[in-house]
Amino acid sequence: MAALIEKAKSTIGLAKKYWHEPPKGNYISYKEIASLSGAGFGVYWATLLPMAIALNASNFLVGACIGLKPMDLQIMLNIANIIGIPLGIFRSWYYDNHKLKGGKFLPFIQMSVVPMVLVSAIFVWLPYESFSYILKAIVVEIMYLLLNVFLCFYNESYTYFQQIITPDAQERTTVMSISQVIYSLAPTITNLFIPLLAVLTGGLNNIWTYRIIYPIFTVIGMFISLIFFSKVKERLVLPKKKLEPVRMFDAIREVAKNKYYWIIQSANWVVFLESGYGVVLGWSFVYAFGGKYQASLGIANTVIGNAALWSMLLAPIVIKKIGKRNLLITANAINVFVLLALYFVYENLLLICVIWYINTFINTFWNIVQHNINADMRDYHQWKTGVRVDGLFGPLGMIGTVIGFFTGMVYPAVYEKMGLLEDYNVLYDDNIRNNLFEVLILLSALGAFLNLIPFCFYDLTENKHKAYVGVLKIRAMFENYSLGVLEDDELKDVMATILQAKELFGKEKLPVDKSELKSARKMSKKTQEEKELRKEAIKSAKKKLAEIKETNLAIERASIIIEDLEKFTTEAGKRRVLNAKEDFAKGEGFVFDDAKNQLRIAKKLSRKTKEEKEIRANEIKRAKAKKEALALVKKYGKENIKEPNTFEKEEILNRETKNFKESMNQRRDLRAYLKKESIYLRVTKPYREAENLIEQSRNYTHYEELVEKYEALAI
User: Fold this and answer.
1) DSSP state letters, 81-92
2) Does the pLDDT at position 279 exceed 70?
3) Over the stretch 282-336, which tens digit does the pLDDT of each residue have?
4) CA dist., res. 461 & res. 442, Å (int)
């Protein structure tokens, strides 16, 4: 008891100490973590009713309450997805080209929540009881499209925001886990009370539940969301120069080269199959045993929801221990066996709940890791290409939407084949329901297995990511210094990273010898004194192992950091700069008529050593840029490719828009300008890249000056 009291006092002391200022090496204070938790609570309740509106057969509202057929719902969803493609592209473009006051994503969260809640409330209060089947389908489709305009902005903005609350991957995992533990109270409350309150409005398959009970929680969530999102902020590692607009197709060309993006997307393409089992719990309580256990669904959800709490608490520890990749593979593998077990017990409500508890525990890890791997992937992309892209990862993801047009037909076809049409009361029939459950569970187990395969190829470790972020900070430091905007705190932080890397670069990893720990564990523990000695010995041995592990990780990072820091001093780097000076000297109007020949020569270069491979890759990239420039010159004519007037762009960007029409006109004019600019920049890309490389190599020569400045600050 005394130990618990001491632990509580220590926790309170830490909270007070770091309430306004974050711990050393971190970015987020405890006060902001608390605000983020409150914001998450608000998000869950604010989206409770909007998220309850979905065009699929498992949805109680549009399926059981309004009475639309499974296949009709899928067709309606496909139509909505087709219409949603240009809207999704617009959102993605807007994110990366409009930084409003308050951040890149936070303003969109605050602006979209009120119309989202309003439209969802109107949706459920329309008199569907008096509509014909066709009219119901049309009205639901129109209202769903309108709702998604705001819901997608809200959800995407919140998702992207979580990925940039801190540039440190481990801190992000910890912060998200803590905040999710706290705001998990939101689903705990709704999962418990909504099924209980639904008895008063006719049950979960009665529309009055969604007209009365859901809006109450949603409106409260809206106000909580608005309050707490005003107390958090975004953090991106970028130079302090003005961000240039990003043309969508230019960003897509670069995104398409990101291997981790395709790994994540390919896993998402098969996840639909894993989701089929999701109806088993709800339908079992609502329809099995004549529906007499429906009110108990709230209690079951509350108990099952507790499983997520343990995942949230364990996630930072497990990720630190085995890494995100291994966690994803392990979780999916376990889920396969859990779903197969469900196949044999789905007729027993108690065993279904046990299986669901385990499943929730496993799946919560995925929910936490998902945000983190997407954030890591974006940081990797910035390190690889030098361009920060967030929203414009979205348009390429539309491939998944197109795939979804076909995969989405699988489960509606299964439902209708098994006898479920517009009358959901057939689910009270044990034979129909049980046969349907068996098919859904087996398909879900197959989906879980397919979902783990792509992550076997995911090798972006936490340590690699930390090194990449370190490199981004170094690049930003050099650029900010050249711009005259480098701050002392930034210099101290980055130089500490560089000096550690220089100290460890080229060193052999330390051997991990666990003999001391094993010996400590074998020590006698008969008396209290021996127990204390054994405890201290184990603690000391573990501390030494942790220090060795961290040193070895730092040695790994050192090679990536020093490689970037000294990239212009290697043979490959010197050759790049020499080639850049050659291309720059020719001028931006030079036409590379021999580009194809240069590409052939580049591909024939030797690649026996690491440096030769790097030289060959650089030459191929350089030749391809010239080849693309030549193709554009031939397509548009050299006389038609001119540098756009930057004053025109400034006028468009600074144009005040008073309404949506003016905003769309601004977008149209900017899109036309960016197309001309894109053609010009791609034609002059060899010259521009040469200029940038020369400038970057010049920036890196200021290293000794920065060391002197850093040492002066340390005095």
Assistant:
1) HHHHHHHHHHHH
2) yes
3) 888 888 888 788 878 888 888 888 888 788 778 888 888 888 888 888 988 998 9
4) 33
pLDDT digits (tens, 9 = 90+) for 382-406: 888 777 666 556 555 666 666 766 6
Closest to 474 in 3D by CA, of 486, 462, 464? 486
Q: What is the DSSP string of 512-526?
A: ---HHHHHHHTS--S
**Cβ within 8 Å of residue 323, ≥6 positions away:** 461, 462
- 637 phi and psi, to 5 degrees? 85, 130
Element (H, E) at 686: helix 685-700
d(CA 356, CA 285): 13
Q: Which of 214, 219, 182 is nearest to 41 (CA)?
A: 182
**Six-digit token string for 72:** 């009709």
- Complete DSSP assignment for 255-295: HTT-HHHHHHHHHHHHHHHHGGGGHHHHHHHHHGGGGTTGG
Of the candidates 90, 399, 390, 155, the one whose C-alpha atom is nearest the C-alpha of residue 269 is 399
DSSP structure class, residue 604 = T
SS3 label, residue 206? coil
100, β-bridge pairs: 103
Q: Count CA atoms closer than 13 A to 635's CA, side-chain side.
A: 10
pTM for this model (two decimals):
0.66
Per residue in 425-447, is it b (16+ CB within 10 Å) or e — as a string? ebbeeeeebeebbeebbbbbbbb
Phi, psi of 600 (to 5 degrees): -65, -45
Element (H, E) at 121: helix 106-125
Q: Hey, how many other C-beta atoms are within 10 angstroms of the C-beta on 9? A: 10
Q: What angle do CA 581, 587, 590 make, to 5 degrees?
A: 115
The CA distance from 29 to 35, in Å, is: 10
C-alpha span between 173 and 346 (Å, rounded): 34
Is the Cβ–Cβ distance between 450 and 433 less than 8 Å? no
Q: What six digits make up the tokens of 596?
A: 């194809």
Residue 434 corresponds to which tokens in the numbers above? 């049980």
CB 388 within 8 A of CB 382: yes
Residue with tokens 């230019």: 250
Phi, psi of 100 (to 5 degrees): -80, 170
Q: Which residues contact 65 (CB under 8 A, 6 or more apart)?
A: 128, 205, 206, 207, 210
Q: Of 250, 211, 192, whose CA–CA distance to 127 is shortest? A: 211
- Cβ atoms of 315 and 174 within 8 Å: the answer is no
Cα distances from 580 to residues 350, 592, 630, 659, 693, in angstroms, run 69, 14, 18, 46, 7
How far apart, in whole angstroms, are the C-alpha atoms of residue 703 and residue 715? 19
For residue 567, pLDDT over 50 is answered with yes
Burial of residue 556, with CB atoms counted within 10 A of its CB: 0-12 exposed, 13-18 middle, 19 or more buried: middle
Residue matched to tokens 């890397």: 501
Q: Is residue 612 within 8 Å of 665, Cβ to Cβ? A: no
